[in-house]
Write a structure and sequence with these properties.
Chain lengths: 206, 113
């Protein structure tokens, strides 16, 4: 099997040395020097936070290398996540949880993924979309105080599905579905599931 | 990912670019759900904007002349617009970009993927 060519950029020398050691411990990876960065198939970037300088470096790398990026970082906000994804980041590894195996897995997946965002990052993007809508609708009183998740559950209840079927349909646990229904009825002072469905219908949410 | 309380910024262009580049790929069931939700949100927003425009440009009467529910809706709308001016209009521009992105990102995924 051909080795995956990796270039590493870190914001401090200690992190650089540590991650270089982890990368070199994986025989399927080959760590290139800075002079060979144009040949890299994957760029690993390690930074405490996604600062302006780090983002600028990522954007330069898109032009110079064009390779997908594995980002190792302490924490990342929603807006930083979007910036990262726009800068060719295809995997985000929490710094505290990095091991040689996880790093190698992330790099291999980045190399073979064709730049396609993995399910966990797509999930974060979907959360952004949901949150955006809630942020626009709620201040305007346009969602009757229901979250998109609650609307989804109530819609399926209105279609006659039971808890188990709703859980399967939405890929939630049954406990989550029950909690969602409980939260809605309690918060809006509704009597039971039927009352919650009727409320959602009357307010035009479903 | 860390939780934060910032107001989420619109990133319709980013989503559209990700979909055009083939980087955003979503199974058709998920895409249909997201698109449906976005379309419903957009319809609500456009309806609210029409009402705000009518009230701002054509209303010559008093709020107390309106039926109770409508008066409350007008108050909510005007108040929300003052808290976050232009956000509804921006949403009306940006949401179609998200919809287009998920339409492009939609892929039929077979079993065993």
């Amino acid at each position: 099997m051909d080795q995956v060519r990796v270039v590493l950029q870190a914001t401090d020398a200690l992190t650089h040395a540590g991650l270089t050691g982890l990368l070199r411990s994986s025989p399927e990876l080959r760590v290139l020097g800075a002079e060979d960065r144009a040949r890299a198939q994957v760029l690993v970037v390690a930074a405490d936070r996604l600062t302006v300088d780090v983002v600028a470096m990522l954007r330069r790398s898109i032009v110079e290398i064009g390779a997908p990026v594995v980002l190792v970082t302490n924490e990342i906000s929603e807006s930083e996540l979007l910036t990262a994804v726009g800068s060719r980041v295809v995997a985000i590894l929490p710094r505290q949880a990095v091991t040689a195996e996880r790093l190698a897995h992330g790099v291999r997946a980045a190399a073979s993924g064709g730049g396609v965002l993995p399910p966990n990052l797509v999930g974060e993007l979907l959360k952004h979309v949901e949150r955006l809508q809630r942020d626009v609708l709620t201040p305007n009183g346009l969602n009757a105080g229901l979250t998109p998740r609650e609307i989804d559950v109530l819609r399926l209840l209105a279609e006659g599905l039971d808890t188990t079927e709703i859980a399967g349909k939405l890929a939630y646990s049954e406990r989550t579905v029950k909690h969602v229904i409980y939260a809605v009825t309690r918060r809006l002072k509704l009597r039971n599931r039927a009352h919650a469905v009727a409320y959602a219908l009357r307010t035009g949410m479903i | 990912m860390s939780e934060d309380v910032e107001v989420p910024a619109f990133s319709g262009e980013l989503f559209r670019t990700l979909a055009e580049e083939g980087r955003l790929v979503v199974d058709d069931e998920t895409a249909d759900e997201v698109i449906g939700e976005l379309q419903r949100t957009l319809a609500s927003i456009e309806s609210r904007l029409r009402m705000i425009r009518i009230w701002q440009h054509e209303a010559t009467g008093r709020l107390t002349d309106l039926p109770g529910d409508l008066a409350r809706t007008v108050v909510d709308a005007v108040f929300a617009e003052q808290i976050a001016p232009g956000r509804l209009e921006l949403a009306a521009v940006e949401l179609p970009k998200y919809i287009e992105a998920f339409q492009r990102a939609r892929r039929t995924v077979g079993p065993g993927r």
